[in-house]
Amino acid sequence: MKISTVYRAELSNRCRIDSSYYLSEGNIAIRLVEAAIKRSPRYIHLGDKEVVTVWQPNRNILVYAGDEEESVPYLQPYDILEFLPEPRAQLSSHKNPIDKLKVPSGTILQTCSGRNLGPLVISDQYLESFVFGSDLMRITIDDPDTRFYVYAFLNTWVGQALLHSSKTGSVIDHLSADDIRDLRIPVFSEKVFEDASALMKKSHELYSQARMELVHCKEEYCSAIGTYKTTAPLRNGWNVSFKNIFNGNGTRIDAAYYDWTTLDAIEKLRAVGGVQLSTVAKTHKPGGRNKTNYVEKEYGLPTLSGRQLLQNQAVGLKYLPKSSSEKYSSFRLQKNWIAYPADGRVEGRLGTPVIITENRDGWFASGHVGRIEANPGIHPGYLYLAFSHPIVQAQLSAVACGSVVDAVYPEDVEKFILPPQIGFEYDRVTTAWEMISKADSLKTEACQLLLQQMNQ
């Protein structure tokens, strides 16, 4: 049984009588913030319309684009937490309020609906090219120093707990614009304000630069390879001889496995010097379901799921005990490995690669994550670009199997034909991922600075 003291004034001011509210981290955060405001020279009120604008588009029915219709790429709310999110769909440019669904760089985007609501990001040059629905709150702060200070505070556990404390909903949690406008953020001193803001600003700049560099590297690499998959409508059908099915041991009868456009693209890769993945790297994936014993953060090491692997801000991390690190050694990740979700949905993020960076070296990942380890002399930047190539991703989609959840096995992945190694500056790729790691460290430093002031 959990017990907490609740003051009468709290009951009157907050108009809540549910015990879960007063036992939550949010209630602890509210008390900490109220005490901090009393000893701070000033605070930022997110309801101050002269400083902050909080809004979200009206709930609308999004209209998806038809074939050959002018369109814009659409991201779902939790896509914004990923390193390089890909559009889930294309929205019609003429049947949606596109101007209201876009977000300019510098806008704080707050997830406001779902089981894990709370995480937020600042829009950058990469996100400017997408549109978003009404489940993302927009927070606009013109003054950049104030914007990054607010962003830093809301990323601390106190800020997240404050946001969660206001959530409503029986099945799906929700935050409203008024919930955010009610928040007050203490400014402990002008020096702390400037230092936290500067750290978060530098983090945001590094992260934005790194993302755009990765985009440019992918585009330049694909252009240099010069081999593309034919975009023909598969609904027109194609012929597959019985002999081809029989030569494949008769284990696959699904149409995707025999997609002629993918087979044609593989032959094109071979023609320009493509190589089998097994000749340049080792592929492995922990087998079976290992019995896990999760512990609190301070006693464990983080373990990533397939979805969390792709997130710059991993939501809902779980921790395996440090004392059992040898037991879970097969689940450990190493720096410069390529990792990808090996179980999921083909139309989702299955097979999307990331490079394991310094800040995640030694973390664990579940048995739903595949690993690619470069052979000596093979640059991890090359493996990342090669595995990201559309033709390689098409091969992955073709071999994935499963009724509800699709799976990709290492035995199939190692047979993939990769684009050849060319005269490309692969250090640009690893440097960009290192910048992402550095940006994460700066962000953590800014949050820790504010938490230290909070606990004084």
What does this structure look like?
By secondary structure, the chain is an alpha+beta fold. The chain has two domains: 26-189, DNA methylase specificity domains (Adenine-n6-DNA-methyltransferase TaqI, Chain A, domain 2, Alpha-Beta Complex), CATH 3.90.220.20; 228-271 and 273-419, Adenine-n6-DNA-methyltransferase TaqI, Chain A, domain 2 (Alpha-Beta Complex), CATH 3.90.220. The protein has 15 helices and 20 strands. The strands form seven sheets. It has a four-stranded antiparallel β-sheet. A hairpin with an 8-residue loop joins strand 5 and strand 6 (120-122). The relative contact order is 0.12.
Roughly what fraction of the amino acids lie in strands? 15-25%
Number of strands: 20
CATH H-level superfamily title of the largest domain: DNA methylase specificity domains
Q: Counting H and I runs of at least 4 residues, what is the number of helices?
A: 15
Helix content range: 25-40%
